[in-house]
Amino acid sequence: MNDTSTRPDAPDTVEKGESLWVGAWYRLRKNKMALAGGIFILLLAGLSFIGPFFLEGDYYTNTVLEDKLQSPGGKYPLGTDHLGRDQLGRIIKGGQISLMVGMVATLVSLTIGIGYGTVSGYFGGKVDSVMMRLVDILYSLPFVIFVILLMVFAKDLGDSIDEWFRARGSEFSISGQWNMLLLFVAIGAVEWLTMARIVRGQVMSLRRQEFIEACISLGLPTRRILFRHMVPNILGPVIVYTTLTIPAVMLLEAFLSFLGLGVQPPTPSWGLLIKDGADRMREAWWMLVFPGVLFATTLFSFNFVGDGLRDALDPKTSKD
Question: What is the dihedral of CA 128, 132, 133, 138, to 10 degrees?
Answer without folding.
Answer: 150
